[in-house]
């Protein structure tokens, strides 16, 4: 009986020692290691404190940084027994929120593209055959009023004969004569051609089609690249579509309403800027923009955003902002790469350095000063700009937070967060 009691006492003592060892290795030792890690990072934090202060200084407010120059003393047992998943003992510097107005500038890259609102179409108004083609190659520069093609059309020939018949046999029938003239004009006759027909009393075998626009000739069948009015280089054996000859040939037939060519105006172009979704909240229509082209790096020009496309282009993870450019002086080639600075409206908010906020994926936390340590606190964030992040909830200006949350994290642990009461 006595041996049994002695065995029970020995087992109880061993169990108590096991519990004490477990508490030491699981609770007290991790906190000591965390303290040592924070002390090791103090030198780097002191070196970085100047950068943090410089970032947050402004006319409206100044970030306050608190630092314990002496070691932590009198850490009681209750503090040591705090769970490491939500509390850390450290003497790293603490900072507070600052409310101020921040001028936002967004850098963006882009390129020049044809303005599709300045595209003109040259179409056939009658069925007919191409007798003479005056355009010889793709992207040929033409001027307004330039002759493009001569078309033979039986329909036009018949309309001319009807007018000549009325002029010869029924000169007093002004209504029919006016209707015959109007029909010829609608079928593509110019005023000069109509007057020539009346004066010579001879039908014109062909009718000439003139351009109503100035710019670069593009074949209507060509596919546009990125919606920018540039034909995509489609490989055919070893020859690109951009170097192939025109598909239209003399002797080919055209149908009424068929678009023969499209004319793109090189003097009115777009600057298309790539906007990341994270920057979209800063950017609005009519924001001022400063642009520099890689072709003319010595010439910067100013404009403003007039439209932001409400969709992602195929294969792109950015939205597109359109800016009108008068290219008559700059003469930037289509497709030129651009660097732009977008000047957004100033944002008034409460800010912290990004280093003070730790992302947990779907949530963000900071470490709030509590006695001799820091406890993890869930926060709500807004926009990010350069080295700053907007704080919209979770803490107030009365709270002090760790200047760098990374120094308080265990790479093999996890953080248990709590909402501010």
Global morphology: rod-shaped
Question: Could you say how many structural domains there are in total?
Answer: 3
Give the mean pLDDT.
78
Supply Rg: 39 Å
Give the low-confidence spans: 42-62, 67-73, 222-240
Sheet-strand content, in percent, reads 25-35%
Key terms for this structure?
24% helix, 6 helices, 6-stranded antiparallel barrel, alpha+beta, 7-stranded antiparallel beta sheet, 3 domains, conserved putative lor/sdh protein from methanococcus maripaludis s2 fold
What can be said about this structure in brief?
The chain is α+β, with helices and mostly antiparallel strands. It contains 6 helices and 28 strands.
Describe this structure in words.
The chain has 421 residues and is α+β, with helices and mostly antiparallel strands. It has three domains: 25-103 and 347-408, conserved putative lor/sdh protein from methanococcus maripaludis s2 fold (Beta Barrel), CATH 2.40.420; 107-115 and 266-343, Efflux pump adaptor protein, beta barrel domain (Elongation Factor Tu (Ef-tu), domain 3), CATH 2.40.30; 120-264, no CATH class. Helix content is 24%, strand content 34%. It contains six helices and 28 strands. It has helices at residues 2-56, 77-80, 154-169, 174-186, 191-200, 327-330, and strands spanning 65-66, 87-89, 94-96, 98-102, 105-114, 120-123, 128-133, 141-142, 147-152, 207-210, 215-219, 224-225, 230-231, 235-236, 239-240, 253-254, 259-264, 268-275, 288-293, 300-308, 319-326, 337-343, 347-353, 358-359, 364-370, 373-385, 388-393, 400-402. The strands form seven sheets. Strands 2, 4, 23, 24, 25, 26 and 27 form a seven-stranded antiparallel sheet that branches. A hairpin with a 4-residue loop joins β12 (224-225) and β13 (230-231). α3 (154-169) runs antiparallel to α4 (174-186). The radius of gyration is 39 Å and the shape is rod-shaped. It starts with a helix and ends in a 19-residue tail after the last strand.
């Amino acid at each position: 009986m006595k041996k049994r009691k002695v065995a029970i006492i020995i087992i109880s003592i061993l169990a108590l020692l096991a519990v004490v060892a477990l508490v030491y290795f699981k609770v007290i030792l991790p906190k000591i290691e965390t303290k040592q890690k924070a002390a090791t990072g103090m030198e780097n934090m002191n070196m970085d404190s100047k950068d943090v202060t410089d970032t947050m200084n402004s006319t409206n407010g100044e970030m306050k940084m608190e630092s314990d120059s002496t070691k932590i003393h009198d850490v009681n047992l209750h503090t040591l027994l705090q769970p490491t998943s939500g509390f850390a003992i450290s003497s790293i510097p603490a900072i507070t929120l600052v409310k101020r107005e921040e001028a936002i500038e967004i850098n963006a890259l882009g390129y020049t593209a044809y303005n599709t609102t300045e595209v003109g179409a040259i179409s056939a108004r009658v069925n007919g055959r191409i007798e003479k083609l005056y355009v010889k190659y793709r992207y040929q520069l033409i001027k307004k009023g330039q002759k493009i093609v001569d078309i033979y059309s039986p329909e036009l020939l018949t309309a001319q004969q009807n007018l000549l018949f009325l002029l010869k046999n029924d000169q007093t029938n002004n209504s029919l004569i006016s209707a015959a003239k109007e029909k010829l004009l609608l079928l593509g006759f110019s005023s000069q051609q109509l007057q020539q027909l009346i004066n010579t009393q001879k039908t014109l075998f062909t009718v000439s089609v003139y351009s109503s626009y100035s710019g670069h000739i593009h074949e209507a069948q060509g596919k546009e690249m990125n919606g920018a009015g540039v034909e995509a280089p489609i490989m055919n054996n070893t020859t690109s579509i951009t170097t192939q000859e025109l598909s239209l040939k003399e002797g080919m037939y055209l149908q009424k309403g068929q678009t023969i060519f499209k004319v793109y105006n090189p003097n009115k172009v777009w600057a298309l800027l790539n906007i990341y979704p994270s920057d979209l909240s800063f950017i609005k229509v009519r924001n001022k923009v400063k642009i520099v082209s890689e072709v003319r790096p010595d010439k910067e020009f100013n404009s403003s955003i007039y439209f932001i496309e409400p969709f992602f282009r195929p294969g792109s993870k950015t939205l597109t902002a359109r800016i009108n450019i008068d290219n008559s002086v700059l003469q930037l080639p289509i497709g030129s790469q651009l660097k732009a600075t977008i000047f957004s409206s100033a944002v008034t908010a409460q800010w912290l350095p990004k280093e003070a906020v730790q992302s947990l994926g779907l949530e963000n936390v900071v470490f709030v000063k509590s006695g001799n340590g820091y406890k993890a606190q869930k926060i709500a964030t807004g926009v990010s700009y350069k080295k700053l992040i907007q704080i919209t909830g979770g803490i107030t200006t009365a709270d002090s937070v760790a200047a760098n949350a990374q120094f308080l994290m265990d790479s093999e642990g996890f953080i248990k967060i709590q909402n501010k009461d």
